[in-house]
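tokens incoming
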């Protein structure tokens, strides 16, 4: 069970660290809100509610397909390949210097929803095609690999908790940092953290791909 919590946490943290619309909104609300130090927490809670709903939907909708060996093998290969791709792109963007985070956001920088942090956590997640594609490929592959199901409620709970802790571990400190006057992340530290995350995604993607081929599930 510790394996489920740890893997879920690391995978979520790896995704959260990569720049995206949720991070941009977190920085914006941390700067603009009177309680900006809580922005990361509230945004993550909104994000978590959406992900909990999606996990339940995936388990309900795919329960029959999870019994199909061909489907599981195809899914494992696609999901693992996607993780390898995401990891490779993360490292590539670092070396192309497309990883720096802008802390000087203003109203003109936010072209979409600017309101409640909790609602924004839902909005900027569900309108992000990367988030939806990740769950449809890598996310569901990881769930299959970790045997996440309604028949294993503790595993399901630990998977969800670990995933959301990964987001909290990034967005909450960012809110505090920005709200209390932080101007930028240390680019060298952030660079190597992203390289580490990209490497982890590649290694884990290779593991998922080979595992489903060498050790296919038995029913």
């Amino acid at each position: 069970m510790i394996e489920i919590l740890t893997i879920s946490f690391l995978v979520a943290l790896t995704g959260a660290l990569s720049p995206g619309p949720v991070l941009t909104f977190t920085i914006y609300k941390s700067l603009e809100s009177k309680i900006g130090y809580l922005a990361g927490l509230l945004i993550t809670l909104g994000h978590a509610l959406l992900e909990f709903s999606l996990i339940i939907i995936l388990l309900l909708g795919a329960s029959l397909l999870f019994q199909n060996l061909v489907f599981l093998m195809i899914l494992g290969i696609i999901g693992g390949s996607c993780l390898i791709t995401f990891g490779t792109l993360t490292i590539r963007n670092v070396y192309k210097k497309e990883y720096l985070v802008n802390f000087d956001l203003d109203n003109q920088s936010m072209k979409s929803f600017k309101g409640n942090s909790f609602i924004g956590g839902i909005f900027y997640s569900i309108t992000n095609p990367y988030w939806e594609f990740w769950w449809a490929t890598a996310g569901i592959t990881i769930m299959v690999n970790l045997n996440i199901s309604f028949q294993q409620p503790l595993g399901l709970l630990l998977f969800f908790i670990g995933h959301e802790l990964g987001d909290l571990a990034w967005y909450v400190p960012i809110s505090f940092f920005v709200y209390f006057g932080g101007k930028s992340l240390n680019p060298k530290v952030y660079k190597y953290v992203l390289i580490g995350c990209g490497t982890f995604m590649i290694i884990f993607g290779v593991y998922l791909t080979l595992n489903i081929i060498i050790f296919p599930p038995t029913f």
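note: Helices lie at 2-17, 21-32, 39-61, 69-95, 117-126, 129-145, 153-179, 187-214.
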